[in-house]
Amino acid sequence: SCASEICSDGVIARELRDSRRRQEAAEAEVHRLDATLALRAQEYEGLRRSSEQALHAAHNRSWELEEALGEVQRRMAGSETRVRQMQAHLVAVREHLVEELRVQLQEVKGQREAAVAELGRMQKELSQSRREVEQQKEKQSSLMQELSRLSHELLSREKQINTLRTRLVEVETQQAEMLCKEAQTPSEWCSTHEKSTMTDLTTKASEPTVDLENYITKKEHTVITISLKDALQQAETKANEALQKYNSAQEENQSLLRELQEQKTELDTIQEALQARFVPVALMEEKEKEVQRLKLALEEMEKRQNQASVNISNIKDEGVQTEEHRQP
Could you tell me the keywords of this UniProt record (predicted)? Predict the structure, then answer.
């Protein structure tokens, strides 16, 4: 029995030692777990504090976003109101400009048609006046040629008249000498012959005899003189008529030139009046460009409004998501 007791005591001792070792190991594990727990607690405390700070920052950010959202909504409301007003104004302006341009275009078309008709009429009248001026120039040229021909003819006639006058003077002188000789009596010839010296006889013998065939009678001389005077008078009459025609053509030419100048002045006046009454093409193009600019501005404002609406929707979505994260 003693041996059995000794054996049982040994077993108990071993178990006791094993229990102590296990207890020590368990205590060491407990210490390790306590250290790990303390570390985890510190980490948890840090995470808790950081999460609280993040949550606080998120709350602040959420309030800021809500305030910004409210401000944006107020601005968007004002912008939408202004956009609607601007759209209504632009639509009214566009309709007014389109209607005004349509009316002006109709007026311009009517005035242009009238101006084209008036311009065509004035161009026809101007062409007719130019043709008349050309005809007058041709008449004036022909009259100048006729006047030059008559002037040459008059000079030729004057030369012939001067030649005939010289010849007539010579004939009259010769005729007077013949009449003087015929009027002398034979007694005078004899008396003279008796009184003459030998030298006179020699001189008279040397003088040539008068050839009566080279002379004309007084009646023929009168007829020639009258015909020469008539020819001279006719030449002077033709020259005066040509000069009168030339002066008349000059006056008619001046009258046509004045009429042409008046028509040009009237045409210039009509063109100035048309320019004053018509809407210039440049102004119409400028108005069309202004309408296009207004359309582009309206489209740009619509794009901005759509973009602002998208931004508002995004901000609202961000606010909703933030609010969901705030809720546990």
Answer: Coiled coil
Task: Kindly indicate the confidence band of residue 193, based on its pLDDT and cuts at 50, 70 and 90.
Answer: very low
Give me the number of domains the chain comprises: 1
Of 236, 210, 238, 231, nearest to 165 by C-alpha is 231
Q: Does residue 197 belong to any structural domain of this protein?
A: no
189 found inside a domain: no
Q: 157 with 249: CB under 8 angstroms?
A: no
Does 201 map to a domain?
no
For residue 309, what pLDDT band results from cuts at 50, 70 and 90? low
The residue type at 71: E
Residue 192 lies in a domain: no
pTM value > 0.85: no
- Residues 135 and 276 sit within 8 Å (Cβ to Cβ): no
DSSP label of 280: P
Query: Which residues span the domain enclosing 80?
Result: 2-180+213-326
One-character DSSP codes across 191-248 = HHHHH--HHHHHHHHHSPPP-GGG---HHHHHHHHHHHHHHHHHHHHHHHHHHHHHHH
pLDDT, position 31: 92
